[in-house]
Amino acid sequence: MKQANRSQAIETGNLLIAEPFMLDPHFKRTVVLIADHHEEEGTVGFILNRKTGLKLNELTDDFGDFEAEVFYGGPVDNSSMYFIHTAGNILDDSLEICPGIYWSGDYEKLKVLIECKLITADSIRFYIGYSGWSAGQLEEEMKDPAWIVSDMDPNYLYKSKPEELWKEILDQMGYHFSAIGRLEGDELMN
């Protein structure tokens, strides 16, 4: 069982779970995977549980008829697409987030690997935009508290249902968070 941790130092590979009472519409009830964190440069992350309703082949024809969902990564740079995957051992220039999970990589080689079916839709996730914080900004948000820090489990990315992920993680953190995670809308304000 995972325990909530509000004082844990933020590191690449951590998850940020939005506090149950967070009202920011960009992050309400989200789970963000920290893809890169440097105290002096800032933080980049991707929301794991927000689908856009779009398919990759609706946004680009670079991958033919490859059927992959596109997710909303966050409110920064919504004109660009990013990807997280499990193919770091075969996709050049991939950046390891945590064991078995990578982001980015050589785009031209990605197209070839998808065409050759060495990367499948269940081993990659595409995002429009990302979540970003300038140096020190996320640490300030942690004082509010706005986020709960947790460890990443690769199953969250590829096995869990995105629409249930926030509650699933809170359930694993124990009764207090599990009970709050089950409240809806106006119940949170009573």
The CATH topology is VC0467-like
The biggest sheet, with number of strands, parallel, antiparallel or mixed sense and barrel status, is: 10 strands, mixed
Average pLDDT score: 88
CATH class: Alpha Beta
CATH 4th-level superfamily:
VC0467-like
The residue fraction in helices comes out at: 10-25%
How do the SSEs run, as a string of H and E?
Answer: EEEEHEEEEHEHEHHH
Beta-strand share of residues: 25-35%
> Are there runs of 5+ residues with pLDDT below 50, and where?
186-190
Count of all domains:
1
Alpha carbon gyration radius: 17 Å
Describe the structure.
The chain is globular, with a radius of gyration of 17 Å. Strands 1, 2, 3, 4, 5, 6, 7, 8, 9 and 10 form a ten-stranded mixed β-sheet that branches. The chain has one domain (14-189): VC0467-like (3-Layer(aba) Sandwich), CATH 3.40.1740.10. 21% of the residues lie in helices and 32% in strands. The chain is of the alpha+beta class. Helix 5 (165-172) packs antiparallel against helix 6 (175-181). It has helices spanning 56-59, 107-115, 137-143, 154-158, 165-172, 175-181, and strands at residues 14-18, 31-38, 42-47, 51-55, 69-72, 76-85, 95-98, 101-103, 124-133, 147-151. Strand 2 and strand 3 (42-47) form a beta hairpin.
Short description:
By secondary structure, the protein is α+β, with helices and mostly antiparallel strands. 21% of the residues lie in helices and 32% in strands.
